[in-house]
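Record type: ASSEMBLY
Status: queued
Input:
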Amino acid sequence: MFEIAPFVPFFIAAALGLLLRGWLRGTLFIAVSVLGLANLWLLGAAGTGLEFGHYTILDFHLLLFRADRLSLLFGYLFHIAALIAVIYALHVRDTLQQVASMLYAGSALGAVFAGDLLTLFIFWELLALTSVFLVWARRSGRAYVAGLRYFTLHILSGLLLLGGIIIYGQTHSTLEFGEIGLAGNILDNPAGWMIFLAFGIKCAFPFFHSWLTDAYPESTPTGTVFLSAFTTKVAVYALARAYPGTELLVYIGATMACFPIFYAVIENDLRRVLAYSLINQLGFMVVGIGIGTSLAINGAVAHAFNDVIFKGLLFMSMGAVLHVTGKINGSELGGLYKKMPKTTVLCIVGAASISAFPLFSGFVSKSMVMSAAIKNGYDGVWLVLLFASAGVFHHAGIKIPYFAFFAHDAKLPAREPPVNMLLAMTIAAALCLAIGIYPQALYSLLPHQVSYTPYDVTHVLTQLQLLFFSALAFVWLNLRHLYPPELPSVNLDADWIYRRLVPDAMRALFNRLFALDNRLRSAMVGSVGRLLEGVTTHHRADGVMARNWRTGSMVAGVVLLLGIYLILGWL
Amino acid sequence: MASEKQYFFDNPDNVRKVLRVFYGICILLFALDFVIHRHTEFRWEGLPGFYPLYGFVGCVVLVFAAKWMRTFLMRPQDYYDKRELEAQREDSSQNAVVEPAAPPATIHLSGGHDHV
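Status: finished
Output:
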């Protein structure tokens, strides 16, 4: 094993990737992911509490690599995600995209192992800077403007983080990245709140979520797979480290789990449906972090692990559909199971995992958060999460496979995607099943030692009842033609505020200002004109100023002045 | 010819068969609630049929609520594009960037993906 920070090999590979081409580049990227994972595994086996890469800036001691069970788990996860996504993207011949994706994966690893807040900030900004190129790599007008919006919000998050770090450094005289907490109100603890908000933007908190649903579906088929894995999970990691047990997070998480499913039902772009369901899954993790018990944190982290893999699998299957057919709207797809049977099966594995079917990975992690919620007395939140569980099956579990692969046959020309895509999806599907069948492998890596058995009669039965009757609702609504059809449309979301409301308001404001300015100017011009008019009237041939004065009246004036002086002298 | 091949779900009988199996499983799962004694932690959870009803009613409410949301959230597909892409095109023409004038939404749909 080498004491080398995990992001370094990725950055070196990205630099070499600029020079290499074709299969050489692909092999290098795969090798870096595999060897990086092996090295990290050996480092982790050597014991936690490992740190190296100390450096000093000003008076602050900074740390490039600090490993504990929490960061190691995310480290393993990001290596696996990078490996799967790299294999999925092997056929791509686009240097920009491939280099950016390696830099992006490296930045995520750097952020996860950052021992201090300043190092975290650097990788936080690098995440934004590298990932935006994956959006722009689509090279369409929509991707360009969506990427700009994405970048702006992430830079805002970075600035908030930096501001928070500066205040935190002044008040705490250390920059170590540990628990920060939200004690006190905003005025007492501005650093805590600013950093919280910075994490919240990246974690897609309600009202800050629209960068995700806006930009991810505009990326390339392979770019979205990378995007879905890293940014939000780094934010989950950061929240789990800095704000465990913050009660506010429970309610934020419940909102995140709930509201996107309504949007997902009426959304037409199937990758945007997945983006909404990504927020929904993040909600479960945020609730777990908010509850903050060992079981809840374990559940949140385990769910993050599983979510990267099954959401990646779903994004990959939809990416394959987009790659092969060039279409991704539910209204234009259908009947693809005939021509893409392997992709169909792999997509269904992902759908079953995200819906938390027994024997699939979602089942063994989501339930930890749910039972933590009920054990800690969050009954209302538990009901909301249960509703969200049924809803996620409805939109991600049924809607995605149904409208893409079944429903009415759109008779699109299609075939199976390239072998590397199928291979990447197969690896992800195998992991979904392996974790679902043998959860102890994942549980043994979790931050806290908790014995939890997901498979008991009650849990399996109730989950199956919930899912099958959700499916029954779908079948009933569909047979009665009550299910909302897929329509080519745009649904207004929070991004409407800065895409329409603010521009419109600014436009109206500026129109008003210009009108006011116009009126002021014309009034001034008018008054100047009137002044000139007045002056000229006095200077005209018969004007007061043009009159000749007689000598006598001038003498009279002088006498008057002298008289006034005389009076003033007497006084 | 592949297009004339009869696939599994092309036959309405097969669809009916699959649905019948599905209904059977639903009934079985509902019935199991009365046979198996579940351990419960939540006060309503112990009611027989809580989970099936919650799942069914929840999803129906979800769909109807989402349909209702369409009445005030739905806009035509080019709602944002009209203004944003035009503004962008003006920008690029001002900056004299040499860019083909083809509609941006349709070019490079696969984003640099060669069909292999």
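Annotation: Strands of chain A lie at 50-57, 60-67, 490-491.
Annotation: Chain A touches chain B through 75 residues (CB under 8 Å).
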